[in-house]
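Convert to structure. Protein one:
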Amino acid sequence: MLSALIGNLAYNVDVEIAFFIVSFIFFIMMIGTKPRRTSSYVYDFFGMFFCIVAPFLMVLIVYMASHIEIYGIVMLECVMIAYIFVYSFILFNLSMYLCTLPYRNRSKEGNYRILCFCFVFFMVFYCMVAIFKGTMFSYYGGEVADISFFVIKMVNCGMVSSTASMIFALTVTKDMPKVARTIIFAVYPINVLLLLVQRSNTDNIIIAMTYVVPMCIFYILFHSNPYDEILGLQNTYSLESRFEDDILLKKPFYIGYLIIPSFNRSDISGPSSKMGIGYETIIDYCRMAESKYPNLHIYKQSAGTYTFIYEAMQSDEHDKILDLLADLAEKRLSEIDELARIIMVVLPCFEQIRSIAMAREMVNQIIRKKLNPLENFRYVATKEDNEKFQERYRIEQELMDIRLKRDMEDARVVCYAQPIYEVESESFRTAEALMRLELDGQIVSPGLFIPIAEETDCIHVLTLIMLSKVCKELKELEKEYEFQCISINCSASEFTLPGLADEILNILQRYDVEPKKIRLELTESAVADDSNKLRNNMYLLREKGVSFYLDDFGTGYSAMARVIDLPFRIIKFDKTLLYQSIDDERMDGIVSNMIETLKSSGINTLVEGVESDAHKDYSITHGFDYIQGFHYAKPVPISDLRKYFSKKK
């Protein structure tokens, strides 16, 4: 028996000693294996630390109670007080972990912390009253003090905590992961039973079992990061932990990505002999790299994607070491597959890169811009790369915030407009609304943020915000000025959304704007593919009075027949056609024929990019109905359209 190793004890503490050892082992694993650190991990970590201290104190209490003549009552009471505080913190951490398991509860973490601290306070108060009253244990002389009352009071606290935890779990069961519900409703009732057993039999101390087991289960299920049994590598969660540690400790390091595209498309651990050789190659590469460079830590993301952290100050010497690692990877792979390609991108420890997600996004950005899929690619990011990425990342985060908030009055989305000249009336009758993004008092170029908005699925919300702002300004303009309409650009992806027509019409209705006052612009590439959803949205809106422009005509691949088939009211000729037609007689003839064909089909024409007298003369001579360009008007804040539209008589 474990108790016999300590000496002659009046109580059996085998369970306490066993779970002291278990807690110690798990705590070492927590420190050494870089577990997954979620917001609730801190409660499991500190809870496990106290799980080491509490059994130790309980064994010490039993030992002192068994030799009370040597240690005395005061010493025993001091250790009991220490145990009360430690046990209360264990129950606090268990309760807080449980409270933060449902994701929605994490926003209320502060409230739950206050509630749990109140429980701890009353538990300590309840026990301290017993200490001062002298009812925590009894001693009537002899060698042994009776600590049954102490054990029972600890059991009472544990039962209150376990019961409250089960009641809480019942109230938030729909928000809790299934695996968490299973564990709670299996473990906590057993805990209550064990505490009842402990209450009826105080000679065998088993309290440690009731708090160590839940802590260990939570760690195994939600935070442990097992190693790959063959490669000996950990996964993304361990990578995040080491990254966060190095940032916190201000360690200099490189973070790199080694990607073998062909391995990602195959099961290299499968039964195929060639794939098996590929797996052996990765194993040999990892073993060699780890043994040669102790500061190198490799993490497996997938069969062909590996991330490494090399803890070293940036220098030419260390750059060469990383280059050698890339050389070795190329050499080993070429031995088994001449066509295999590797991608290796390394980031020095830039101060602004504060998370693995940021590092991964920067690597992806570099690969997209520089990668030739037929060649090996290796690259060490520079400060210029980091500056460009930080600008893009800042814009991306702002766009995501705009998308999530979905505020139709968002001040970051700024509405400009470019007046459009009508040739027949020799006046400005329409305008094109132009989206701008204002961040920290600076206007971001549309060429920079529009592609990002499309990649991140933020473009639709931006369009809705633009439409709302245009409608709001349009109602003010209508009071005093005469004009036909204002056009708004739409993304190609938006017109495949099933509910697009309803969303647009709802905004028009909200601002009491006539549909004929709004025109939507689609690029030629948007209509190149025959999409039923696009066609349906266009016809639904046209039936309500919304007209359409085809933008950038001449840059896409759509056939003239398809353009005429769709309900476009105006075709906007791209400026490249204008510039080429002036210098090329053959192109001039093609453009003239297109204008004639469109007009015969009842479609008006508009030319963009008119910036000189030559452009203007050509546009008027060739019969364009509308002219847009800097020669007539530059983009202005939409409220400044008053300077161009005529006042009502």
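Protein two, convert as well:
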Amino acid sequence: MNAALTATDLFFDQAACGLMATDAHGMILTANASLHAWLGMAPGALVGTRLHDLLPASARLFHYTCCVPRLQSEGAAHDIQVDLLMAGGARLPVLLQLVRQRDGDREIDHWALFRAGGRHAYENALLCKSEAADGAHNVQRQRDLQLQAANTQLSAADLRKDEFLATLSHELRNPLAPMRSALDVLKIKHGNDDDARVIGAFDRQLRHLTRLVDDLMEVSRITQNRMQLRRAPVDMAALVRGAVHDMAPMMTAARHTLRLALPEAPLTVDGDATRLAQVVINLLGNAAKYTPDGGLIDVELAGQAGHAELRVRDNGIGIPAGALGTIFQLFTQLEPGRERACGGLGIGLALARGIALLHGGEILVESDGPGRGSQFTLRLPLIAGCVVAEEIATAPGQPAPLRVLVVDDNVDAAETMATMLELFGCTTLLAHTAAGALALAPDFLPEVALLDIGLPDFNGYELARRLRGLDACASTKLIAATGWGQERDRQLARDAGFDHHLTKPIDIERLRLLLQ
């Protein structure tokens, strides 16, 4: 090759496609080495020959009847496939791109030739790649749709789970109510005789079952974002002292030593006392359950950096490092503790953290590992300069001998409640439907009506409205007794004309106060 060729000459001569130029009459003026090589000719052999010598008869006819007119009218002809005659007589299919340009006083046709077989192979490969990409896109789209459907199903299942927990906890309250009333009757009648220990065992286990049901109800409210807080200034020292007192039977049964350290000055937080008591009780219960009998539990309350900090520390089974991040998840229980834990559903810590978060606080956990105990720290923001009103504790007096109408479709619940009320000296009358209550009220003239809400004919709210419309019940104290205890339920009761709202199972001391 001539060493004096410029870079442009090299690009033209060694281009990946055939390039040539002809005059308007088809005389070949120049052609690159690539085209010569395709046709099996020596370099420069095409120069001075005529185009029609390279074209078979059919291609010549097509060129002069189709390509030339387009060059004359449009100055270009694109994507034309023809055959060229090779040196040995074989045919080479090519794809032509033609452009006519004027060079001084003459017209020059510039040819770009692509081997059709290579072009087709490239196009086929490109088509295959495109089809493969489309296929992959469709597969990914199907997977995305399946994932979306799975997420929708999981969300629906999670919602059904929350609704199931709420319904289950509510339904469990119904059998708990007559059990609580029956046990209260036994405590009143036999609390000081030889059966006191048996009755005490029943009482502790029933309270434990009631707490489990309460936890189920509360955790379902948290997961559905339906928990409502009844905020007021709360002295954490008094609250912790009360929770420790409530958990004393459990600590005694396990022979645990509980050391309590409370500050002399009050630590006041803005919170729902009932919910916060649940948190503290759950933390104490967790320590008691996961500490072998005869263990040591330290409970310390102190003020730290504008927060009330309650630390519950035990020398129990400890927590593996890998479980510290999941210990607050719903239904989580440590495997080593399943064999020794005294009951539980794995919801106590999840509920405790949820309530703490609703109060703007947090719960932290620390443990040096299995067998080395653990510490849970509850942190709640303090209220500066707030004084909690002291509650003056007074022993409940004996209820007045009132006429009480008990309305409940659960026969056992109605009869055990009536028995307990009669021990208070009350006169009772039972009804198991709303219509039955309306029929009995005018002659009985009840001074108190204890009404279930879920009645078979119409609900307790409507019954309360109708009783208020009777002259015989104009001054009757109406008390709602229901398994639903949210603020919304209390408001419904107030709107219907109830004077008080009690959640099943009914606390005998609260009822005693209402009857005084």
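The two ends are 121 Å apart (CA to CA). The mean pLDDT is 83.
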